[in-house]
Amino acid sequence: MERGITIQPYSHPVTVRFRDVVIASTDHALELREPGHNPVLYVPFDDIYFVHLEKTATNTQCPWKGTASYWRVRGQGEAADDAMWSYEEPKAEVAEIRGYGAFDPKKVTLE
Q1: Number of structural domains found in the chain
Q2: pLDDT per residue over 7-41, tens digit each?
Q3: Is 12 exposed, middle or buried (0-12, 13-18, 19+ CB in 10 A)?
Q4: Nearest to 97 by CA among 53, 1, 31
Q5: Are 52 and 75 in contact (CB under 8 A)?
Q6: How far apart are alpha carbons 51 and 8 in whole angstroms?
Q7: More confident residue, 1 or 50
Q8: 1 confidence band (pLDDT: 50, 70, 90)
Q9: CATH number, domain at 106?
Q10: Which residue range is the domain that position 70 belongs to?
Q11: What is the pLDDT of residue 21?
Q12: What count of other Cβ atoms lies within 10 Å of the Cβ of residue 11?
């Protein structure tokens, strides 16, 4: 892996909430570890409730993972911009995260 990135199955259930609204729930998360960063959980798209999400125009570049796209989350009359991101066309070295989304722990609750 580039830059020491490791990706492995996460062995616990994961629930993502925005306010009191469940926006994702899975037993199939992946944990991505990258030196110098906190571990990040990636949830399969099949386990994300996209009815609560809206894609934004935000994109960021990572030299090791590729281009990230972002989504706004809505629930209980509130919203948070760029609360979820995904590498829709990740670099080959991290291809396992294609079809997965990660959530900003400052904007949602991960349980």
Answers
A1: 1
A2: 999 999 999 999 999 999 999 999 999 999 999 99
A3: exposed
A4: 31
A5: yes
A6: 28
A7: 50
A8: very low
A9: 2.170.150.40
A10: 2-110
A11: 96
A12: 8
